[in-house]
Design brief:
The protein has 13 helices and 12 strands. By secondary structure, the protein is α/β, with parallel strands linked by helices. The mean pLDDT is 97. Bound molecules: ligand LLH and magnesium ion (MG). Magnesium ion binds at residues 206, 232-233, 258, 309.
């Protein structure tokens, strides 16, 4: 079997989300947005698909790198093809990101699963068929009744508990919110949610990603008192030494790295240096399922858990193929958004959750996305 084509279809669909000037998502009035689907095709007609923001699969990246590396090759040679692409990250004028690597690699996995009639998490070697979800809120805002105050977070936490979530992660206020960043406000929100959900309910905080060491330490000491489960990306992850320092000064678990460059190499340094107590990976951050599994195994070999960043079928696949992690991240959630609504370009939600807080693995061979191909073909842009 040989790869004969790589196609990108861009289409429009309705969205109720918008990004602010710092890239954090928030609810907005319904609007049409553009998104893309990359498809890898082989000489026997098998196809593998992966959704992506259009800029991640723009023509320069697909024609200039992906086609060069993949066309004529065996789609089962994933490691060789991934290494071939990763090689161009150094020489390609900084254009080829881990996100593009991830989209290509996920489409290769999807193609393999569809060809063999098997779900990718089974192909890797499944550990479980359902995963407990934590509800991950959007970042705070200034919209009354949204996520604009500690009381808003507390009210929304009660809604999430009723929906079935067995853990909640708060993203608190970040710029450009006028009063952000403010660790005292973060603590107020964390304390209000603790009161709302009770003493034993697992809670996590993903705070403003650029606090100083002293503000991060003050916030961490308060979270310890509130019995929080982990503390995430409160400082710039480029400064690993700051995380080592913080981990030495707190007893509560620090999780990371999530956004630091350098894939599994960076993660190995964090583990070795004691910068984190729980590691992190996500298919979009690291360049796909293969490199993420390297991090999950590295963590396991080091006696650590690795919690997966982000939603979508690729990340759910990782969660179902690992023992050393508890949760799948479900979100981002907001009181004004109906997260359980199926997007127009799918026939079913990729991470449907039951009333007990479990996301069950899908049944469609490949990564598991139930794609509405007719919708996509009828809404091309
Ligand atoms: O800053 C944000 O918008 C969120 O932190 C976002 O990146 C989210 O994906 C995250 O960090 N989840 O863990
Ligand atoms: Mg995060």
């Amino acid at each position: 079997m040989k790869i004969t084509d790589i196609k990108v279809r861009s289409f429009s669909h309705m969205s109720r989300q918008n990004n602010d000037s710092d890239g954090h998502s928030h609810p907005c009035d319904p609007r049409q947005v553009r998104q893309s689907m990359l498809t890898i095709v082989t000489d026997d007609g098998t196809e593998g698909h992966c959704f992506a923001p259009s800029e991640v699969v723009r023509p320069h990246l697909i024609n200039g790198f992906a086609r060069d590396v993949l066309l004529g090759e065996d789609p089962y040679d994933r490691e060789k093809l991934w290494q071939g692409l990763a090689h161009w990250q150094r020489g390609g004028n900084g254009q080829l990101s881990d996100r593009t690597l991830a989209v290509v690699e996920l489409a290769l996995w999807d193609l393999t699963g569809r060809k063999l009639g098997i779900l990718v998490y089974k192909l890797i070697g499944a550990y479980r068929n359902k995963v407990l979800a934590y509800g991950s809120t959007m970042c705070g805002d200034e919209v009354f009744g949204g996520l604009s105050s500690p009381e808003d977070y507390a009210r929304y936490a009660e809604v999430l508990v009723k929906r079935g979530y067995k853990a909640i992660k708060l993203h608190t206020w970040m710029k450009p919110v006028s009063f952000a960043p403010d660790p005292r406000m973060d603590v107020k929100a964390c304390a209000a949610v603790r009161v709302a959900v009770g003493a034993d309910f697992p809670l996590m905080l993903d705070a403003y990603h650029g606090y100083s060491r002293s503000k991060a330490l003050w916030l961490g000491l308060e979270l310890q008192k509130l019995g929080y489960t982990w503390f995430e990306e409160m400082m710039n992850e480029a400064s690993m030494s700051s995380y080592v320092w913080l981990a030495e000064n707190l007893t509560m678990p620090i999780i990371g790295p999530e956004t630091a460059d350098g894939k599994f190499h960076t993660c190995a340094e964090w583990i070795k240096s004691g910068a984190c107590d729980i590691t992190r990976t996500g298919v979009r951050d690291i360049g796909g399922i293969g490199p993420s599994m390297k991090i999950i195994h590295l963590a396991g070999a080091s006696g650590m858990n690795c919690e997966v960043h982000g939603s979508g079928p690729g990340n759910l696949t990782l969660c179902a193929a690992q023992k050393n992690g508890t949760w799948v991240e479900r979100g981002l959630l907001h009181p004004f958004i109906e997260y359980d609504e199926v997007p127009e370009y799918l026939n079913a939600q990729a991470d449907a959750m039951d009333a007990d807080g479990y996301v069950h693995m899908p049944q469609i061979p490949g990564l598991g996305d139930d794609i509405n191909f007719d919708y996509i073909d009828n809404n091309l842009v």
